[in-house]
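Why should sequence recovery work at all? Because a backbone constrains its sequence more than one might expect. Tight turns favour small or flexible residues, buried strands favour hydrophobic ones, and helices have their own preferences. The token representation captures these environments compactly. In the example below, the structure is given first.
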């Protein structure tokens, strides 16, 4: 009888060890497969959201064109991606809507976006829809005020928390006027204009279409405006949306770019669309449109420089705290990678 190499008890022990090693190895393989399948699902870009939520605004004339003609809907029709339009009254509302998920892409001024980014909002400014004349200082037709320096000690109506308010702060700063040197009167735009006409305030600071309407219909006089103080108008997205749906972002920009070029070629039609959407007269709409610069969809070095110059003002007005991160804030905000691949050469004036 051949000699047994192992006893029955030893075989059970060895077999158990072998089986145990196989089980451990099998579990390891299964877990590795599960992780390899799950991680890409979490990190990789996905084709489409359930719907595309995007805002339209009076200060973004191109958005009005897109909504009018349904070009975004046509772009995503074959993908069965519905488009939902959400009205925005200003940059702050656009940023709030991004934060809450109310929109996926929002219209914002560059300065408002810088402020939002500095406060920790994970956003990217991916495309310039225009360089509008954001806001202006208006006085009555018979006012003796000629320059900003003449407003020292005077009452000025403005709406806090708006693009116009940021413009108001930057304009005073540039003129060497401290905010405490004037009397700021907090009022909504229309109430502020009424206060101006009643001579309850010396000046009013606000944006179009209110500026153009007051100038044409009430004879108000513009004493100061400077579009660079608020920067360009940007199409802004959250970092998460841009990472998850890069193709959607790129295609929206592609359609925006077509609408930008259409707007340059058809100023009269654009004015008609604006008048209908904003519920203003055609002369007012034509004046508003005439003040919009559609020439550049990608920021240049001057745009970047202007934005960086806003940071000290925001700090001085206690809207931002000093931080070592502020030095790279603008670069972290602006992402030209989507637009640069679609736009070969920006149009010139």
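From this structural description, the recovered sequence reads:
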């Amino acid at each position: 009888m051949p000699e047994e190499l192992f006893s029955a008890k030893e075989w059970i022990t060895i077999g158990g060890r072998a089986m145990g090693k196989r089980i451990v190895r099998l579990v390891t393989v299964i877990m590795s497969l599960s992780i390899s399948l799950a991680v890409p699902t979490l990190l990789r870009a996905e084709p489409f959201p359930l719907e595309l939520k995007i805002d339209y605004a009076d200060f973004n004339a191109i958005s009005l064109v897109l909504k009018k003609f349904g070009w975004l809907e046509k772009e995503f029709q074959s993908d069965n991606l519905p488009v939902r339009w959400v009205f925005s009254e200003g940059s702050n509302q656009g940023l709030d809507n991004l934060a809450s998920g109310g929109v996926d892409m929002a219209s914002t001024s560059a300065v408002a976006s810088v402020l939002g980014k500095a406060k920790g909002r994970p956003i990217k400014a991916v495309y310039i829809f225009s360089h509008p004349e954001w806001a202006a200082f208006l006085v009555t037709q018979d006012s003796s005020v000629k320059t900003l320096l003449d407003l020292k000690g005077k009452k000025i109506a403005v709406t806090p928390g708006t693009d116009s308010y940021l413009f108001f702060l930057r304009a005073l700063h540039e003129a060497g006027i401290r905010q405490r040197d004037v009397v700021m009167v907090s009022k909504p735009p229309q109430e502020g204009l009424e206060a101006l006409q009643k001579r309850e305030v010396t000046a009013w600071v606000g944006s179009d279409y209110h500026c153009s309407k007051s100038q044409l219909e009430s004879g108000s006089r513009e004493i100061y405006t400077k579009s660079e103080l608020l920067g360009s108008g940007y199409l802004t997205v959250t970092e998460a949306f841009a990472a998850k749906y890069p193709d959607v972002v790129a295609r929206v920009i592609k359609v925006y770019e077509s609408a930008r070029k259409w707007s340059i070629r058809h100023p009269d039609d654009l004015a008609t669309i604006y008048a209908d959407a904003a519920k203003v007269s055609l002369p007012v709409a034509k004046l508003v449109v005439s003040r919009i610069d559609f020439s550049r969809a990608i920021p240049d070095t001057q745009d970047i420089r202007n934005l960086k110059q806003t940071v000290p003002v925001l700090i001085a007005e206690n809207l931002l705290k000093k931080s070592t991160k502020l030095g790279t804030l603008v670069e972290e905000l602006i992402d030209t990678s989507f637009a640069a691949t679609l736009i070969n050469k920006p149009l010139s004036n």
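A few observations help interpret the result. The chain is about 50% helix and 15% strand.
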